[in-house]
Amino acid sequence: MAAGMSTRFGTPKQLIRLKGKYLIEWVLDAALNSHLENIILVLGYKNREIFEAISEKAYHPALQVVVNHRFSEGLSQSLLAGLRMVQKTFPSVMFLLGDQPMVDPRMINHLLDRFWKSHKDICVPTFQGKRGNPAIFSRNLYNQLLGIKGDVGARNIIKEHPEHVLYVEIDNPLYFCDIDTEEDLTRIKRKSETNPKF
Question: With contact defined as beta carbons under 8 Å apart, do 192 and 18 qualify?
């Protein structure tokens, strides 16, 4: 999901540069190189500029691009735009945020593997008990997801169904780092200097 207006950052953060790549490319590359079968890239604000910036990857056979024209209504509309593309075809969906560049194929595959082996309807990564993203939901919760409104994502559904949640402890807190401000970007750049992923 990469449709937001980046109001706290002041410029489209999807297009800020990090180690030679656009921010959105880090997450997109992680998804495309993972075991995810189909990738839906949800754009909204400045969607034409972002599409042009990633034009080569935008035509990847495993990728579909959808534009959320209601991006100003919050995160829920991006979630819905993506879910509607897969709800009749796939038994589960993973929601990835476009501003978490440290998420990589290894983490995605680990979550998928644990989820597929479980009987839970939700899979959420944690670090020292703190919940993060990306999260996975089974088809059993699609109808509830389709009722989400505002800028809250699916956190309330997770809270309402604790018995259906598989919590997967992650060994690296960097996976949860997101970029909302210039300070966040500076901090990620500093941390990335010692991270072999970069």
Answer: yes
Q: pTM to 2 decimals?
A: 0.90
- State which fold the 13-192 domain adopts: Spore Coat Polysaccharide Biosynthesis Protein SpsA; Chain A (3.90.550)
Residue indicated by tokens 């995810």: 36
pLDDT band at 197 (very low <50, low <70, confident <90, very high): low
Of all helices (H) and strands (E), which one includes residue 126? strand 122-127
Helices (H) and strands (E) in the chain, counts: 8, 9
Distance, in Å, from the CA atom of 124 to the CA atom of 165, rounded to the nearest integer, reads 7
Q: Peptide bond preceding 196: is omega within 30 degrees of 0, i.e. cis?
A: no
Output the six-digit token pair for 8.
């706290």
Cα 40 to Cα 66: distance, rounded to the nearest angstrom: 7
pLDDT per residue as tens digits for the range 142-164: 999 999 987 777 889 999 999 99
What single DSSP character describes residue 165? Answer: E
Two tokens at 31?
Answer: 């998804």
SS3 of 122, please?
Answer: strand
Category of 10 on φ-ψ map: left (φ > 0), alpha (ψ -120 to 50) or beta? left
